[in-house]
Amino acid sequence: MAATAFHQASLQSRGYFCDSRLSQENGNAPFRLISKGFKLDIAMLRRGNYCSRKRGFSVIEASNSQTTVFDQVSSPSNGAMSDTRKKSNEAALILIRHGESMWNEKNLFTGCVDVPLTKKGVEEAIEAGKRISNIPVNVIYTSALIRAQMTAMLAMTEHRRKKVPIILHNESEQAKAWSQIFSEDTQKQCIPVVTAWQLNERMYGELQGLNKQETADRYGKEQVHEWRRSYDTPPPNGESLEMCAERAVAYFTEHIEPQLLCGKNVMIAAHGNSLRSIIMYLDKLTSQEVISLELSTGMPMLYIFKDGRFIRRGSPVAPNEAGVYAYTKRLAQYRQKLDEMFQS
Ligand SMILES: O=C(O)[C@H](O)COP(=O)(O)O
């Protein structure tokens, strides 16, 4: 009990409970935290991050082709907006867990099985898009799985800037060549979408396709809870959260953080456990705290990256929620620009 109170206080001090206010208003919590006891530190990840961040810079400098694509595709056509970006070392980071999938609906362990969204999942993705429709997005990262990709694309149909998300196909030279865009103006109205298997859901091993309730009845609630939420116990022949973090957080630090450092606003559409591992890294959660971190489907979560730090802003309730824009001048300016451009 004492440990529970301690973790709740520590989580509260990090701003988690602003989300439970949102959950009351929306009947759906973006983050649900129930404290439990567990042990591990993420110093290794932080050390990894430090090296990766340095590597990330050189990736950006050396890998000219990728940077060029981003720059070409994401340069805002409006000069005033790009001026704002140049002056600021701040960037927005939006995380979205995919909307409800057809196996979420059936309560089946899904993991890396590539299952599409339900109608409710489609609606959740569209609702998520409305909530972030005034927040700048320059680059989108999704997993390689269709439920995350559908979520990203559907969310972007609601964005007021009306740029077109375009999936980059870098799997072969031919795929790259065959998906080239030959108009600079058109490129400027596009947002690159990078798909990465490293952001996939944790591989659930021999639980994939099994019903969660039936599995708990068979192996016991506690065993199944340990497989689902412990940091370092893998499900049979599957990945633990720790193993999932090794690839998801490494991808984040090597590929996504350098974009944020360059002032690019990033949206990531991924999965319950790949995002839990990334949030563990962003919020410096301990292995005990992450056990209690639950993410709702289709709920966007906003972070501001500033001076090398991630500041958690919770989940935007609606496009016009004052709190989100009150926090940074840059977000307010972007929204004002959209108001001027589209007069709506
Ligand atoms: O892969 C799955 O089954 C879920 O989307 C995430 O499952 P979990 O909440 O059991 O980890």
Automatic annotation (TrEMBL):
PROSITE patterns: PG_MUTASE. One of its GO terms (molecular function) is phosphoglycerate mutase activity. Keywords: Glycolysis, Isomerase. GO terms for biological process: glycolytic process. Pfam families: His_Phos_1. The record marks 271 as: Transition state stabilizer. PANTHER family: PHOSPHOGLYCERATE MUTASE. Belongs to the phosphoglycerate mutase family. BPG-dependent PGAM subfamily. This is phosphoglycerate mutase (2,3-diphosphoglycerate-dependent).
